């Protein structure tokens, strides 16, 4: 059984927690007939997250970070000038924001990135580069706006996560937004998202842990589910 994202959104059921709830409910009636796939989000760093049976997670923080690892996607994006350098800059920026997102979720700090993360303030209006002083100011705003979390705790948190892979720290939409700011009229956000969706290849998916997990499930419960 497959529930389209548009149905989930229409019925207020988006988000991994809701997908897990739906899968549990349906499998109570149809045992091992329903599976769900969710963005990993920041469950990797959660002390309380418990995996749900028949719900599978992306290898990276989200599907976009998985797509960026695909060589065919990369080849298409390299048609943009200096893509490798620009992508590295975008990931470095998204990683700094990612540290804050993880702290916010992990420690339930209640900071609203949707309201307070303003790219036009953090990025240089001409070059699109992140402005170090503005990033520092944003971190300071983060600390000031949340209760009971200090700059020292944030630094310890960042040190703890320093060796974690970019794909686990970075939010894919932050990387896309950053790339769009660099390329401006040459590649807007919609175009970049289309490249990810169109050029992500099955061969790349076959190499993922997500694919291996799905195949392992299919071997036991539904051999005809996947032919990948």
What does this structure look like?
The structure is a single chain. The chain has 228 residues and is mostly helical. It has 2 domains: 5-59 and 208-221, no CATH class; 63-202, no CATH class. The chain contains 14 helices and 2 strands; from the N terminus they run ααββαααααααααααα. The chain has helices at residues 5-10, 16-29, 63-67, 71-77, 83-106, 113-116, 119-122, 132-145, 151-161, 166-169, 172-183, 189-199, 202-206, 209-221; strands at 36-38, 55-57. Strands 1-2 form a two-stranded parallel ribbon. The longest helix has 24 residues, at 83-106. The chain starts with a helix and ends in a 7-residue tail after the last helix.
Output the keywords.
mainly alpha, 228 residues, 2 domains, two-stranded parallel sheet
Task: Summarize this entry quickly.
The protein is an all-alpha fold and 228 residues long. The chain has two domains: 5-59 and 208-221, no CATH class; 63-202, no CATH class. The chain contains 14 helices and two strands; from the N terminus they run ααββαααααααααααα.
Report the β-strand fraction as a percent range. Answer: under 5%
Strands in their spatial order, largest beta sheet: 1-2
The secondary-structure class comes to mainly alpha
Radius of gyration: 19 Å
Overall number of structural domains: 2
Count of beta strands: 2
Which percent range fits the helix content? 55-70%
Residue runs with pLDDT of under 50 for 5 or more positions: none
Number of H- or I-type helical stretches? 14
Query: Which geometry do the CA atoms define?
Result: globular
Q: Major β-sheet, in short?
A: 2 strands, parallel
Give average pLDDT, whole number.
Answer: 89
Give the N-to-C terminal Cα separation. 18 Å
Order of helices and strands: HHEEHHHHHHHHHHHH
């Amino acid at each position: 059984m497959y529930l389209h994202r548009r149905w989930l959104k229409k019925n207020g059921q988006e988000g991994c927690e809701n997908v897990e709830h739906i899968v549990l409910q349906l499998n109570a009636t149809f045992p091992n007939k329903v599976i769900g796939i969710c963005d990993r989000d920041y469950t990797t760093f959660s002390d309380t997250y418990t995996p749900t049976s028949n719900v599978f997670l992306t290898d990276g923080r989200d599907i976009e970070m998985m797509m960026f690892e695909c060589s065919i996607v990369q080849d298409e994006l390299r048609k943009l000038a200096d893509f490798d350098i620009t992508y590295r800059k975008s990931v470095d920026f998204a990683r700094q924001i990612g540290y804050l997102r993880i702290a916010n979720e992990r420690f339930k700090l209640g900071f609203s990135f949707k309201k307070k993360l303003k790219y036009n303030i953090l990025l240089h209006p001409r070059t699109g580069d992140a402005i170090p002083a503005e990033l520092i100011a944003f971190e300071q705003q983060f600390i000031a706006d949340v209760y009971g979390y200090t700059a020292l705790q944030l630094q310890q948190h960042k040190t703890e996560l320093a060796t974690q892979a970019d794909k686990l720290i970075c939010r894919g939409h932050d990387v896309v937004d950053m790339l769009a700011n660099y390329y401006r009229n040459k590649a807007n956000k919609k175009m970049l998202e289309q490249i990810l969706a169109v050029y992500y290849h099955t061969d790349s998916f076959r190499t993922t842990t997500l694919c291996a997990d799905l195949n392992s499930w299919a071997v036991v419960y539904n051999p005809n589910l996947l032919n990948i």
